Amino acid sequence: xxxxxxxxxxxxxxxxxxxxxxxxxxxxxxxxxxxxxxxxxxxxxxxxxxxxxxxxxxxxxxxxxxxxxxxxxxxx
Length: 76
Description:
Layout: H1 14-17, H2 21-32, H3 38-55, H4 59-74
Helix pairs in contact: 2-3, 2-4, 3-4
């Protein structure tokens, strides 16, 4: 999946979701167990954006997308 990180958030946001490879992996594993649907697709998109942001050194944006992915995964 290719996506573009487009938001700028404060550096303190990086602490919210803890942007790390480990947390990305945990979130991806959680998403894999979700039923197919809009929530799963939204969560996958956020994870892709988090990965792109992390690779670009934008840890605040990464954390924001990772947090959104986690919330999309828990929304009913």
